[in-house]
Hints:
Shape: globular
Radius of gyration: 20 Å
Mean pLDDT: 88
CATH architecture of the largest domain: 3-Layer(aba) Sandwich
CATH topology of the largest domain: D-Maltodextrin-Binding Protein, domain 2
Low-confidence stretches: 1-24
Oligomer: single chain
Structural class: alpha/beta
Distance between the termini: 40 Å
Order of helices and strands: HEHHHEEEHEHEEEHEHEHEEHHE
CATH superfamily of the largest domain: Periplasmic binding protein-like II
Number of domains: 2
Helix content: 25-40%
Number of strands: 13
Amino acid sequence: MSSINRLLKSSIAGAFTLLIALSAQAAEGPAVKMTADAEIAKLPGVAFNQKLADGLPAAIKTSKVIKIATDLTPPISFQDEAGKLIGIDADIAAALGVILGVDIQMTNVGAGAAIVPAVMSKRFDMTISGINDDVELEKQVDVIDYMYDATTIMTIKGNPLGIKSMADLGGKKVAVPVGTFQNRMVEAASKKCTTPIDILSIPKMPDVLQAVRTGRADATVNGYATSVYTTEHQTGNGKGLQALPDIRLAVGYLGMLVAKDNKQLRDTVVASLQHMVDSGAYETVMKKWSLGPLAVKTVKVNDAHSMPVD
């Protein structure tokens, strides 16, 4: 009987993973070739580097294409009014293309929950989407830790409900992206509240923010970088949003994901990013998007264990 149960659980898990993958493909945007604009192309260190290019896997050397999955989370990766993909990840991806002498094809997979299946299924070579690194994620994929982040709470401008901590979210409706670190964080916090949090799980980050703007949710628990940027650059219909900057929880990394059996690509990307850090190009990109304090000095792999857990 136990073997039947294991088989059943395995089948259910496999079907769920397939469902996520199929849903993601249905919501995907087109593959976009990332081209370095004049501002990025002139940065120090953003030039073809043969030594770094030599480290690429043979298949990528032949195709001269790296396929990258992303999802839309400003200012990490989002679209401008004309629909152009912009943000920290777009700038870094374009610079990597120049340094490695390859075309970078970036695809918006539509939702954060699709990011891990996108790379594990080998439909994409890697992801650059500002996903939170944690030790559980590192069991599935290799995570290149390329910037810091934390988690905070966002409310309607003025914080009319006087929220000052995660405990204050008890009994309130909180919107979070499906399958994310923040989603798990709110679920854990809800268990500690006298009155459970009413969790509204939504696939896409822009829709999460819109739920708060329109009053469908009282708050969202969100990445610090995204929350600060959104407060400064209000977009969307409805009331303005406000990050609560005094609340800085779960300080950690944002990471790029690479399949565990693709160490050549992982190591080449790490070396290329460190090249950008050392040249000053990386810091310039971070400052451009008002996130200089979140810049790393050393690009690491699977380093979530070194960060605070609370």
